[in-house]
Every structure is written in C-alpha cells, then in structure tokens.
Amino acid sequence: MIAPAPVIESGGRLRLDVKFVEGMRVQQGLWPSRMTVALRRGVPAIPFGRDYGRDELPFDLLLLDPDEALTARHLSGFDLIYAGGDDFHCLGLPDLLHPGQKLVYVIEYTQETRLQIMDLDRSRSLLGRLRGRLWLRQQERRRLRAFRAATALQANGYPAHDLYAPICADTLLYLDGRMTPDLFATETEMTARETWRAAGGPMRLIFSGRLEPMKGAQDLIPVARALERNGVDFTLDVFGTGALQGDVAAAMQQLAEPGRVRLHGAVDFETELVPFTRTRADIFLGCHRQADPSCTYIEAMGCGVAVASYDNRMWQRLNGEAKAGWGSPLGEPERLAERLIALSRDPQAITRASRNAWEFSRAHGFLPEFRRRMEHLARIAGITLAPFAA
C-alpha cells in the first residue's frame, strides 16, 4: 500500500496519525498475509498523532523521502499494489510492474475539483495559476493512462466514480467515513431533537471542517448575517481551524448578536464533535464550493443531522440518493440562507430529512464500506479474508 498518511521519524520512533494506524490494524486483521505500507516523510507536525516503535505497528513500514521516485525495486516481491490515484508520484506505476503483479488505484478528486482548489488558493498569482493549470493537465493525462492500465479502481464518492469508472472496467464506488456502530445517533437523541424543534427552539446549525476557501468557510458569516437580517432564531457552531480562522473570528464580531456564532477550533472527533452533533445540532451547513467526497457529509448524517449545502457535484448526487437535505446554487450564501429561512418555519421538513440522513448513513458506515473495499481487493488477489471481528 502506497498511502498518503503523514509520518515523522525521530530518534528511532515514528509519529503517525492514530486513526490511520487503527484503520490499518483492522485492515491487517482481515488480510491473511503481512502488509507493507509506504509513507513519505516531510510533514512538520501531525496534530492527532502518537509515537510508535516499528514493532508496535500492525504492518511493515517503508519510508520514502518527500520527492523520492518510486522504482521497480520498491514494488519487488509484492503480488498486489494498492496506490493513491491522487498522488502524482504513483501515476507511473504501470510501467514498473513485474509480470503477474496487480495494481489497484484509489481515487477521490476529479480534475474539476483539483482546478477549483487551485483557483481558491489565495497565495497563487495569476501566472502561478496558469502554470498550475498546465501542470494539472499533464498529470491528468498520466492519471488516465495509469487507470486504463490498472487492474482495478476504487472511487471514493460519486464524482470520482462517475468520471473514472468508464476508464477502468473493475471500479468500486464507496463512501468514506469514520462512523462505527457506537457513534451513530440513538433513537432517544433523534426524538429529543424532534421535540426541541416542535417546541420552537432555535434552529441549531453546525459546520465542521477545515476553515479554508475550498470548504467555503468564507461564506459562513454571510449566511449568519442574512439569517439575522430576516429575524431567524438560530445558533451556528463552527468546529475547525485553517487559514480563514482569523477572518471568521473577526467577522463574527460584526454580527448584531455575535454570541449566536461560536468558534470551537479543532476537537476530537469521537469524544467531542460526534456527541455535540448528536445532541446539539439540527442542520449541517455545507458551504463546500468543490466536489471532493467529503466524509463530513456522511458523518454529520450519521449523527442524525440534515444537510443544507451548496449543490456541488458530490452533494447533489449524495442527496439524490439519500434525500437527506437541500441544495442551493454554488457560491451564493444569500440563496443558501433563503433555504434556511424557509426551513426555520418548517420543523417537520428538517425532521424528515434528518431521519433519511440517519438511515442512509447507517447503511454506509465505516464497517460495511470498509468490508466492501477489502472484499474487492481480496477478489483481485485471489485470497479469502479472515472473519470480520472489528
């Protein structure tokens, strides 16, 4: 596996993302032989990391330098190579395969999303963006060639699947998320929120994610301002950090009632964000301007929260399947606020969408989606998985 997870090597110890290691522990538990994971050095910090010795890891680890080129030597001795299709370092792998080796890519972004992310990058000059577009086009040609040569493809989210599935005959669609059975909202919590809404309590909005332009963080306060102007009784809790954190904090103070919006920073997913969302939120406010697969949708839905989002390609397709909320034109906060204004007068509509969101997410939780991915790889490798004990 050539993975995008960060790693820091220091004094014979390895700092790794805890979620990545625990996910690999589940994966290795299913696989009948020892897996090797290749990770690249180069990150300065890992926020939710822990230090491990190599003997503590549930897999063998190969460390690569930040720009180290992959060679046939790196692939030697492996029957199955599982690599990130978003990683340009991996796009030359078909030329390195030995006879009999099988290659499976996993892909999340589409070219449209990559271009949107680049265009929202404030640090790039016009010339830098033009150069970036040229480079992305070159990499996309390499990506299409690699996918045509690959044994199979796993696509995270509808946009990537819809774009790349015609290129690779054996393509699996999955919806990535971290919701395990113990994290989903309970019936008691669902009923309590329905009682709150029926009694006329304030509409409780929530946003979680990176406070970056690609996630639409710049539109959170304009939505709140429009709700204020129209006399909507609401609260907005914002979880996350990023380049726009200072801008959001400053804009909050310009509201007529700044206390309606609360900025929480980054919190632990399982012990803080999920319990809060399950008990103190009604609608996830999705200002995402691009169509990345965004596990945030499926995770908020699993907490029993409906979604009001811009109609990016991911949310449009997901909501078409789940009937879990509402869409509005991309990049127009006033139109998104209009939708919320109408919903503030229709608690039953919120309840219907919340119930749909909850049911859909439970059917696509971490364990069933992960099992499907592993069964796909096992079929390609011609092996039988161990019993799923997780």
Q: Can you walk through the features of this model?
A:
This is Glycosyltransferase. This protein has 390 residues and is of the alpha/beta class. It has 14 helices and 15 strands. Helix 11 links the parallel strand 14 and strand 15. The protein starts with 6 loop residues before the first strand and ends in a 9-residue tail after the last helix.
Please give the count of helices: 14
N-end to C-end Cα span? 21 Å
Stated plainly, the CATH topology of the largest domain is called Rossmann fold
Q: Mean of the pLDDT scores?
A: 94
Order of helices and strands: EEHEEEHEEHHEHEHEHEHEHEHEHEHHH
User: What integer value in Å does the Rg equal?
Assistant: 22 Å
Write down the overall geometry. Answer: globular
Derived structural class: alpha/beta
Please describe the biggest sheet, giving its number of strands, its sense, and whether it closes into a barrel: 6 strands, parallel
> Percent helix among the residues?
40-55%
Strand order of the largest sheet: 12-11-10-13-14-15
Pfam families: Glycos_transf_1
Protein name: Glycosyltransferase
Domain Glycosyl transferase family: 194-357
Keywords:
15 strands, globular, Rossmann fold, Glycosyltransferase, Glyco_trans_1, alpha/beta, 390 residues, 6-stranded parallel beta sheet
Fold topology:
Elements: E1 7-10, E2 13-17, H1 18-30, E3 36-40, E4 49-52, E5 60-64, H2 72-75, E6 80-84, E7 102-107, H3 111-119, H4 126-149, E8 152-156, H5 158-164, E9 171-174, H6 187-198, E10 203-208, H7 220-229, E11 234-239, H8 245-252, E12 261-265, H9 269-280, E13 283-286, H10 295-302, E14 306-310, H11 313-322, E15 325-328, H12 333-343, H13 347-363, H14 366-381
Parallel strand pairs: 3-5, 6-7, 7-8, 8-9, 10-11, 10-13, 11-12, 13-14, 14-15
Antiparallel strand pairs: 1-2, 2-4
Helix pairs in contact: 3-4, 6-13, 7-12, 10-13
